[in-house]
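Annual report, structural modelling task.

Input specification for the S-adenosylmethionine complex:
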Amino acid sequence: MQALTDPTYRKLTTLMYDTIGLSLGDSKKPLVSSRLSQRIQRLGMDGFEDYFALIAGPADGGEFQMAIDLLTTNETYFFREPAHYQLIEQELARSKPRSLAVWSAASSFGDEAYSTAMLLADLQQQGRIGPDWRILGTDISDRVLRSAGEAVYPEDRLRNVSPERLKRYCLRGDGSAEGLVQIQDKLRDRVSFGQLNLCQPIEGLGPFDIVFLRNVLIYFDAPTKSAVVDRVLGQLRPGGLFFIGTAEGRVPCSVALQTVGPGAFRKPLGT
Ligand SMILES: C[S@@+](CC[C@H](N)C(=O)[O-])C[C@H]1O[C@@H](n2cnc3c(N)ncnc32)[C@H](O)[C@@H]1O
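The model returned the following structure:
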């Protein structure tokens, strides 16, 4: 197969930047080449130029989505960054909301959304929040969203879930489903998923009381990060909580967020 040339690499990276904000510098060329070349060979295509024409064209047959999946990582697991869930629990113990709307804004396979659902279901059962709560998970990748809706996970992804919660909210597979866990309907009914590109205008979604935007800003350059954070904060109610990954550094945005913990912020009242 022909090597990835600089002009084709530039066309590929421009397409990814313009459509989903993915920032791929020259240093990522070997990585892009190796991730896409296996796919190109599997499709029996001649090389990167033909592949670019396919994913940029109107009849891509879902291949553009496949390219996104190959160039981003969907890594996630239940109760990632446990301190964020503890903070939500403390906050809700104080505010005792009657209703609550949560958004997992780059949900990947749904682990973050269902972790939050486990926490909220427990709090509701203890009478610490009202019964009117819902969670929305969105992502750019339709593959992860399909899987999130099915809510079936390898056991290892639930390694941070307590045995009590596993018993209350999960069904263990047996036979050919051994090693898999399914989230029970009583949680699935509270969680919905939909496709949303964070790099395009967002309308009619919020307001939410809690928003997770964790481990997705890493894909974006500085101007895109600011635009995405501002856009997402537009869906958070004043006083609401906003979370990013603790390794993601400062949040570049036009709102003066109050820091409440590592990667955890409050949108000030009156904004
Ligand atoms: C590493 S996962 C983060 C999952 C979860 N939030 C967590 O912290 O465990 C990043 C997700 O961001 C999604 N993503 C990348 N670019 C996106 C965009 N422009 N709009 C929406 N989602 C995007 C990817 O598809 C991927 O599922």
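The chain has two domains: 6-71, 82-266.
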